[in-house]
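Subject: Sanity check before I submit

Could someone independently write out the structure tokens for this chain? I want to compare against mine line by line before I put it in a report. The sequence has 127 residues.
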Amino acid sequence: MPNKINHNKRIISEKIIPKKQIANHDLISFKYNTLDGYDKNPLVYVLPTKNLKGKISGINFNYLKEYVVQELLKENDIEIKNPSSVNLKKFNLYKNAFRTYKIDDMVSVKIVEYKTDKMLKEERDEN
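---
Independent answer below. Compare away.
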């Protein structure tokens, strides 16, 4: 099993949303009610998917070091052509964190505002 990494210090805010409002490129957290799941509280960057009825695919930040998370957030033009073909320049960094989740097993979905390195730099420059 992969090591889980806590990114709570980078979370600026969370807001509960209905499951129907989950959109591509959202960063969401939720409780995952499944017996065989290792991470019961994933923090997931939702990737655009096609033909995944009742499911979402994304990159679970809890399996990535902060440097790798920042590299993902810098990616331009994130696109999935099909569930097994992700068009990310540095996908080898994230592939072990790629997951698919059943929407019906997701509870208490929250949209997350996440502090990037760019935001931290701007804060430092202001002070």
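---
OP: Matches mine. For the report I'm noting this point. Residues 33 and 94 are 24 Å apart (CA to CA).
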